[in-house]
Amino acid sequence: MDSKRQQKFARLIQKDLSEIFQKDMRSTFGSAFITITDVKISPDLAIARIYLSFMLTNDKEGLLHDVRVKTKQIRGILGHKIRHQARIVPELEFYVDDTAEYAAKMDVLISQLDIPPLKEGEEIED
């Protein structure tokens, strides 16, 4: 469980990184739409694990590689934005957030299940 300090710092990082991807570096990644779904901060605030969601792209791994290549530039812009609010700029680690795809896959699997209805007088067994 994250401390309040970690949660507050994570929200700050998420807000500013969202702005960086949507405004400052919009043209850098082509027509892809990148959103930050979650940020996890280490207890010493030195490492930020950023989970990204990609839209309007077919090559998510390639786009993730491009983001990782530009990490130093992204961290520099972030440092400029948070310089009055944080002592250190955390190291950034980017990951693909595939929870939406996983949820869609689970929905498809569940919809394909063939569960027979209960017969009269029959009870559900635990």
Task: Using the coordinates above, name the CATH class.
Answer: Alpha Beta
Question: Which architecture does the CATH hierarchy give at level 2?
Answer: 2-Layer Sandwich
Helix content: 40-55%
Q: Provide the β-strand percentage band.
A: 15-25%
Fold-level CATH name: GMP Synthetase, Chain A, domain 3
What overall form do the CA principal axes indicate? elongated
Biggest β-sheet: strands ordered side by side in the sheet: 1-2-3
The H-and-E topology, N to C, reads as HEEHHEH
Q: What is the terminal-to-terminal distance?
A: 32 Å
Brief digest:
It contains four helices and three strands, in the order H-E-E-H-H-E-H. By secondary structure, the protein is α+β, with helices and mostly antiparallel strands. The protein has a three-stranded mixed β-sheet.
Q: Could you outline the blueprint of secondary structure elements for this entry?
A:
Layout lengths: L3 H21 L8 E9 L5 E9 L4 H10 L1 H12 L8 E6 L2 H13 L15
Parallel strand pairs: 2-3
Antiparallel strand pairs: 1-2
